[in-house]
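BUG-1086 | component: ligand-complex export | severity: low

The export step for zinc ion jobs runs without errors, but we want the raw record kept on the ticket for reference. Input record follows.
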Amino acid sequence: MSQPNRTAAGGRIDRERPLSFRFDGRHYVGHAGDTLASALLANDVHLVARSFKYHRPRGILSMGVEEPNALVQLGQGAYTTPNMRATQVELYQGLSAQSQNRWPSLSTDVGAINDRLSALLPAGFYYKTFMWPAALWMRYERGIRRMAGLGHAPREPDPDRYERMHAHCDVLVVGAGPAGLAAALAAGRAGARVIVADDQCEAGGQLLAERFEIAGRPALAWVGATLAELQALPEVRLLRRTAINAYYDHNFLVGCEQLPGERAKELSTVPRQRLWKIRAREVVLATGAIERPLVFPDNDRPGIMLAASVRGYLNRYGVKPGTRVVIATAADDAYRTALDLAGAGASIVAVADLRAQAAGYLPQQVRSRGIEVLTGARIVGTEGRMRVDAVRVQTGASRVRALACDLLAMCGGWMPSVHLFSQSRGKLEFDAGLGAFVPGAATQAVTCAGMVRGAPSLREALAQGFQAGAAAAARCGFDRIAKIECPPTLEPEETPIDASCAFRGTPGGGKQFVDWHNDVTVADVRLAAREGYDGIEHLKRYTTAGMGVDQGKTGNLNALALLAELRGVPVLEIGTTTFRPPYQPLAFGAIAGADSGALFDPVRRTPMHGWHERHGALFEDVGQWKRPWYYPRPAESMRQAVDRECLAVRAALGILDASTLGKIDIQGPDATEFIDRIYCNSFRTLAPGRCRYGLMLRQDGMVFDDGVSARLSEHHYLMSTTTGGAARVLAWLEEWLQTEWPRLRVYCTSVSEQYAQVAIAGPRCADMLAPLTDVKLDAMPPMSVREGSVAGIPARVFRISFSGAPGYEIAVAAGRGVELWTTLMGAGERFGITPYGTEAMHVLRAEKGFIIVGQETDGTVTPLDLGLDRMVAADKFFIGKRSLARADARRTDRKQLVGLLTESPQTVLPEGTQLILEPHDFAAAPRSPVAMAGHVTSSYYSANCGRSIALALVKAGISRLGETLYAPLDGQLVKVTLTAPCFLDAQAQVRRG
Amino acid sequence: MLRIACPWCGPRAEIEFSYGGEAHIALPEAADALDDAAWAQYLFMRTNPKGRHLERWVHTHGCRRWFNVVRDTASERIAAVYQPGAEPPEDAR
Ligand SMILES: [Zn+2]
């Protein structure tokens, strides 16, 4: 198992621990401490991907979070994860990864034809070519999606576990490079509670990639000593592998901690990722910088990499990504790469410096090793099919030279990682010296330190870090820190970079990529500018620059600098697109945490739930509640079961679990006054011991909730609400009491779960109940309540009914619900007692035309629309009253509640069916518009009526009773007749009583 | 996510609270006497400023009490919290 590019010694890998892995089915070996990218490069694998649009061969460009090319599909089956950056995946034994966006293979990819056809695929080609004709768009889109696919999502549910941590600290330090560690040390020594979060498996940041010295020793020795001190401080917590992804308001930051290792079943007992939600009094951003690539023809071949990343692979992983190296640069920094590689035995063919001069200390060092340095160089192009094999360079007007190589390292300087700072709403400034954006004025309690601030040297980064950490701690009240000694470093002065060399490109030649991930070229940016897409937001959407998985971390700055130059305005005037979370991609699972599956939402069950289950009930979700829907007998269909339940209630006796209704206990000397303001109908005339159906409106006059309220005594009410509306109504009552009427002496308490409630309905209900209770049923008028006992259980007995059949509801303490239910079932046996569910309840109430809030109403329906005018009190104040007086509420052509009878009694219209006034031939004129007159709100087969029944909201419905309308259904027109909204015993129409 | 200091419970995360819109919009005393325009003004019209905003919050998953907040809608800075019915503190400007 040779690793041809692995150095003999050095790096942070564990050479004693080889790890085998597969890429595209081929077997390789790397080491513990490798990333997938460094292990592939150690095996001399550069070709790892095909590009998004042109399917060009692509290699590993970078070493970190910014990687735009090396996206792989990791793992298999339910554990597969797409678009993983190979540079961020820690190697583990048995890792298996696949390349993406190629067919049938990386080296033979059919989609590469796009590269030849690129003249037909300019920027904005989606919009220009495929949007017309509209009817074909759907077909194009499917094809485009297949062609432009990246990885694929797993088809199975995610079997992994995720968890969430909430943390608070005085100082959160983001990044554990030199500036971050210095900041953490300063704040930690001062006694502040500190969290340091870093996305790598090991602290050190850029120092891991360099051969710097601090205080005369290797910089990593300083890192080690600093970590040891931090770990000894009780208030300091170091989070490794934790990428801070989001910076929200009031210093609330969210990070994702990756737990190491393979996703596999045996690990499912431990979380795979942990989401950190951190609230910090002060934040220090030491997020570093990303190296800027160069724009030149064919700058995207495998084997063309960022220079500092090349150096990083060598120093951190002991991997020499090439042996014959050309370096192209617009900054001194890349000379370090030349020196480090030469020191490791690579042959440096030449350094092509795009600047006019290269006279600094580092270039001199390189020259003194006998390495050729070309100044004023232009990269005219590159050669090589699956890997770069030559770079064509020109200096001045001289002949173009082809420099043979197997690696081209490029450097356009550094771009501060201002993403989190910008998310915090800090202002960005443009640093002309760097040619890049740097943090400006902050709007939150945040300071920046190190390369993110454009620190020109390690010395400066350390100094900024110490200063920022100490100051942040002091602002939190931890100012006992003595003066901090910044350790000395030995660094050469660097000469200025020339950022304009980076983005300008070279006229002529092949494609010059600005955004590798989304295949955006200089020509695309020029085209966009020429066509008037000259704002950065337009440019982004027209060319898709910056819209890939990498979010343009390498490409955005070059794109907007180029646009600024084309328009002849300063870069700052072009600005940046908005930086949005997340900074790095994260799994949806991490965001969901444990809130999935059974834990997604609480499930509420009534005390009698177990009985319903044992008796075969099927359940319906009503809000969070599980309610029995119907109780099918063996071999019974739903329709048969519901018919049987409905007939039993009207003919003999039914029993329903009504425990889920919202119940609010309202007490106080001003309770009557309060309830009278809440309901649109009058309650002050209600005597103690009596009940009344009430309708609640919002201030805009629309129906909000309904239910029966009982006056238990002079100052004591029990309000019932809809099952789903209980919490909403309680909040509504509290809001009015606290904010508008604080002088009213009223107290509201939710008692929904304190009582089990059972409805019994049907002509035999009194026969069954009377022997079981000490309440005198004969003495109970409709809509009344008595306290007593039922089956020996203290109970409230209400004479109310939602089915229109004679009925009672019995409430007992929740813990005695099962006892009550089973006693009633036993006592009702000789009357043929039949448990019924919500479906039968809906049918029974619809037979009587009783509304259900949320079904007959949708927030645009007034009591007048429902034909409930008589419930609207004229002689008192109530919420929503003034709105009912608006002319619009009085319009006669508003949608109004009516009954519907289909021509065929067997036709049951689907709820939501639209209604039209005139017959329309949809076959002949399928697209011509037809005016909608209304829609079906409830629709059932009613066994008691022997036919289908429906309720509907129809424009001017009340004036249309008796008329025929039409319901388009499955290409046919169903004739319907409008009736009053009551289908059974219209003369005995008493609401709920 | 904001951090809001409930006057009764102390500082808590925004997820514990519900937003209640602009503060100091009192129910008109004689609503019946208002014309439609004046009623619509009460019901629908809000200032929606960029900057200092007096607004209502309720500690839904805490003490369930309503209170008022002075918040800058641009910077999200909270200058003060105060009780319903009270006037905003002078220094919260
Ligand atoms: Zn509170």
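Assignee comment: Attached the raw record above. Chain B has one domain: 3-21+42-92.
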